[in-house]
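Chain X:
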Amino acid sequence: MNLRPRELALDGGFVPIGVAEDLPGPDRVFIGGRQSAGSRRTDRRLARFRVGIEGRISHLKRRYGLKRSRLKGHRGARTWTAWAILAYNLDTLAIRAS
């Protein structure tokens, strides 16, 4: 199974050429703070999505220990991240259930 994103919403620090080389070709790339050939409506939607994700990442870093992994290597970082996201999802479910 080959998964590839249809749209990417990136921070202004990314260079489009580098993104195209590192990721499988998305249909649409939005980079914050730069002009794109797409519609204004789509650009606004992707900008709002990126801003929302930034807040969630900040929350995960502050509350769930994603500032740094305490496990070694890439595999350890993946395990650390998976446990943090599981804890976040369980907290979210507990809040919505009550």
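Chain Y:
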Amino acid sequence: MNKSELLIWLQEEHQQWEALLERIGPTHMDQVGINSQWSFKDLIAHLIPDGLRCIANLQAMQHNEPEPPPPWPVHLQTDDEINAWIYQTNRERSVRQILDESHQMFQ
């Protein structure tokens, strides 16, 4: 896969993601139960740090720099600790804030 094909694929995947978000609608994104006690908003917020980490790692590789630290505190080591931190960090944020950050990350 070359760069152009990758960009086309990413755009198509993003369009499908946006279509899913549109079907769910902002009024249903706060409903708990999508994943145990998490809402869809919580799930989206959970994806953002991993996306930001991936972007930072790609940029570091492009500039031949060391891997940057994760967006969560470095003392957190287990998935449960990291997930709890992500949840606590974002639980008071609005659906609009989470969606805007998710969209900005893709751009």
